[in-house]
């Protein structure tokens, strides 16, 4: 047995048939499957430890609090942060909105600029558009090159003393390009901008060290790194988190409340109003353990091998064209098929048991950049194998025969 | 499991590849735009009316095989019909692709009966219809979401 079939064995959902075909899951950029250890951690929490956190004096509450705060410590260790720099949120979307509203809104005004890139996910576009509407700031968009990499010259050109915030993705969910976030943060910092990195597509695949990157904020989602949905985290540099206003008001985020004056709890609790997703955090904690156990080096090696094999296999299919061929790339294969609309490709693949995603991948501006309205996307993770890519190729040939 | 060939009948793939009614109805008496954000499709449907009679329907835009074929065959079926007939045809068509009954529909629409087994594709099949009905009712933009 090869190493990779053993990895897939840890993911029960992969072991099923759809229709009469074995499932081939190639949609990990949308959400990864969950290993047994994560499923068990969530299950065990509800079975044994379920209680509310921080407030209780009883045993269950203490265990729940320990699990929840333990998760924070795990994430901090994984990202190279300290515990009080990790704010639990629902996911990358909420993390970015939190920064926009709690840091950006009170500080930005007319004349300020927010710099993003053409390859952003809608969740790293729309919160900034809202902020622009609220404050009168202007949105600037750095260009993407023909191969799908960021045009760093364009980024530099648009960066200036008016740039208040520079927000960019670590890895493009639509085409896999990896941005040189450390370099971009250095540039943005030199211009005096606060940096926000969207790491939703990074933390399940590569080692991320927020200190090394030098970003002010880093957003990610648990469900894209083998954890549950509805939990994610925002890393924020302590000084910034300290000076920020709360995001939402409610229980747990306060020290004391009176009708005359309410005082905020300390960071990061100031940003966690209400009962949080405790089970989600505990599941994410197990996901961090899982990643640490396999190791990012192994994950990287497996995925890069799959990427190069997939790139070769797709290039051998007449009529299939890859979109996004940046040198620095994650294992995401975006492509079009001549004469066959992506939606039809998706249906035919599904019929072969091959789960891919089709459409604009929440990156409509990037699709327009390439003159497309939609693409097909096969996104790989550590549990995929070369035979999964072969199954994709078979399904694509079938689509071409049927419809092209 | 549902059979792919039931979805992509020859008449469907033929109309998808070689639509007969692509373009703009002249003169254009009403126009509608239909968006399917799920697949990024956008169809513009134009209608030439003579009183209450639909003289000509044309469509333009990008779409998958199902939505293009459906738009093309819709244009074919609607030509010469009244506005009320169009609404009735749509309700029959909707029942055919998304309902449970066995509605009477013209042969050219019956080729979409396989869509019912592919719930994710109902929106593709009905996009042009939603758009034309909205256009006939005087509203310009519809979305399948
Ligand atoms: C690059 C990127 N950013 C942000 C998000 C949003 O993540 P979530 O929906 O988990 O908040 C995604 C999810 O698809 C993504 O791929």
Describe the structure.
The complex is a heterodimer of chains A (404) and B (145). With 404 residues, chain A is α/β, with parallel strands linked by helices. In chain A, 41% of the residues lie in helices and 17% in strands. Chain A has 14 helices and 17 strands. In chain A, strands 4-10-9-8-7-5-6 form a seven-stranded mixed beta sheet, with helices on both faces. In chain A, helix 4 runs parallel beside helix 5 (126-135) and helix 12 (342-351) crosses helix 14. The longest helix of chain A has 21 residues, at 59-79. The mean pLDDT of chain A is 96. With 145 residues, chain B is α+β, with helices and mostly antiparallel strands. Chain B has one domain (2-143): Alpha-Beta Complex (Sufe protein. Chain: A), CATH 3.90.1010.10. Chain B has helices at residues 4-7, 10-17, 65-78, 83-98, 107-110, 122-136, and strands at 30-36, 41-50, 53-62, 141-143. A four-stranded mixed beta sheet of chain B has the order 3-2-1-4, covered by helices on one side. In chain B, a hairpin with a 4-residue loop joins strand 1 and strand 2 (41-50). Chain B starts with a helix and ends with a strand. The mean pLDDT of chain B is 92. The interface between A and B is medium-sized, with 20 and 23 residues. Bound molecules: pyridoxal-5'-phosphate (PLP). Pyridoxal-5'-phosphate binds at residues 91-93, 121, 123-124, 169, 173, 198, 200-201, 221, 223, 362 of chain A.
